[in-house]
Amino acid sequence: MQDLPSSIADISDPELLVQWLEKYNEAYRAGEPMISDAHYDLLVERLREIAPDHGFLSAVEPETFADKREVRHPAPMLSTEKAYDKQSLERFVERVYKEAAQIGVMDVLFQVTPKLDGLAARDDGEILATRGNGYAGYDITKAFEKGVIPQGGRGLGLGEIVAVQSYFQENLADRFEHPRNMVVGIISSDVLNISAKQALEDRQVHFVPYATLNKWEGSGRELLENSEKITRDLIQATDYPMDGMVASVMNQDVRDHMGATSHHYRWQIAIKAKGETGVTRVNAITWQVGRTGNVTPVLEVEPLKLSGATIRRVTAHNAGRIREKGAGVGASIEVIRSGEVIPKLENVLTPSDDTQIPENCPVCETPLEWNNDFLKCPNLNCKARVEQRIRHWFRILGNADWFGIKTVERLVAGGFDSLEKIYAMTEEDFLALEFGPVQSRNLVEAISLSKSRPVEDWRFLAAFGISDLGEGDSRKILSFFPLEELLDKTRDDIVALHGFGEITSISIEEGLKALGPTIRHMLDLGFNLQPTPLKSEVNVSSPIAGKGVVFTGTMETGARKDMEENARSLGANVQKAVTGKTDYLVCGAKVGAKKTQKAQDLGVTVLTEQEYLQMLEGGASGDEPEQLSLFQQA
């Protein structure tokens, strides 16, 4: 894919811009944003300038969650129109009054609530579903079982899954780039890392219905006159990540009259409000190297108080901004700190003459390459990249403790700079690196446990950190090819799969080729991998192949999760809730009558756990029990 011009004003090809917007949006939905929200919004506005009728502008930005059941929304969950300045908000209010007058409504009431920066979802009391494409989302009800707290109780409609901001800043800001990264990981992963698990145990991850948020109500005139104070007051009263405010019309008849586009409700607008800003001076620039080789600038600034915190470091996001804006040593800059954990460079007020961009990697001295606005170290063996890659392995694998970044840095400094070397380490090796006796034993045991504990093969693959093979795409690609076969596949094999484009296929092929020897070595160590069911495998002898199956209640013969995995291996479509597409409801102990009654109403076959097992032993789809004992009990 061709790079975008470094200056937004120079972008003239709408199709190229849309390709990048889709890539940026996919990364954001996966919890791994490539650019800031502000930069993304500017690119959207540039598309609006050069191609105002482009379909991208009228579509809801999609999200996907692999291996989760799709759920149709009773009413669309659309995006929100945005106001970037006071004039845009004035036009919105004026339009509302004009359309309200058409139906004889003169007294229009507005409401303003915080615009949470989390994962949007809908809770109807039985199913929690993501927004998806606006019309159908994905069933993530299991989030409550993991420990997500429903604020105000269940069934309160639309809202967002977010982490408590003050808790995140104090405990997790050095482990996740943004609270949304952690939230997406909790929802999409079956195995949680230690930090996310602790946040859930501390009851600091919430599903917050919009109906429970702090709010302001008043007229349109009051909204326009007091928008900054309204925003400031709501920010101070809300302890969740935010990226603005949402102004909505309260009058239902006006809402009905104004309606919606295919993209957003016309009676609602997002106010992209600035957070608290301040001016400071750049003292130095630190260049950091990430796992994928991106070399990003962090500005070391004169200490500045913002939103109750002392700011000493500011992200400039990429080298292109340093070069374009002159944000070098000595520059006077405006810094913004809103709902973001890390303060951002907002504007350069007085450019610097000292905007030296490194030509070589600050860690390994390899010549750097430009990739759009980003600098990249191409050296796969760069010490910083190695450290981040090893840390990524243990974090994504999720079944071995003790390997924090400080431990990994010491291992790499001691020459243990690959997974092959680390997995061959003995207690004596750790002691030689001046780890204590207890920690050395713990580290050796952690390595052993990471091999023996069950782990999904897609998680194992994702842990290697191959570009464009995150957890979701790893699960998807392994539903087409077994892991051992995947290592020999080419870009042509991959691009032929549904959901994999030409650019990502090239990237995946290159990553598999570069890391193939390491992956094979790790496979030879005998990890306890749980294979992803292949789409091509159909167990014709299984009575549940192709059937929708729901498990509920407490099972006697094994954990419900294990029974679900077994059912998937037999070709079943395991579901979380009874719907019209469910064929069997398998009931353990302590099942409520409501669920069995719903199954009965939908004509779903209800089986006890023993009846289900007997059916599997019978082996033929026609052997299901004629008597449905639970119906009689209900």
TrEMBL record:
Cofactor: Mg(2+); Mn(2+)
UniProt-annotated binding residues for NAD(+): D37, A38, H39, Y40, D41, S79, T80, R131, E160, K272
Xref: Gene3D superfamilies: 5' to 3' exonuclease, C-terminal subdomain (1.10.150.20), BRCT domain (3.40.50.10190), DNA ligase/mRNA capping enzyme (3.30.470.30), Nucleic acid-binding proteins (2.40.50.140)
GO biological process per UniProt: DNA repair; DNA replication
Taxonomy, superkingdom: Bacteria
Catalytic residues (UniProt): K115
Xref: InterPro entries: BRCT_dom, BRCT_dom_sf, DNA_ligase, DNAligase_adenylation, DNAligase_N, NA-bd_OB-fold, NAD_DNA_ligase_OB, RuvA_2-like
Leading EC class: ligase
GO molecular function per UniProt: DNA ligase (NAD+) activity; metal ion binding
Domain BRCT: 539-613
Function text: DNA ligase that catalyzes the formation of phosphodiester linkages between 5'-phosphoryl and 3'-hydroxyl groups in double-stranded DNA using NAD as a coenzyme and as the energy source for the reaction. It is essential for DNA replication and repair of damaged DNA.
Family in the record: Belongs to the NAD-dependent DNA ligase family. LigA subfamily.
Protein name (record): DNA ligase
Organism of this sequence: Desulfatibacillum alkenivorans DSM 16219
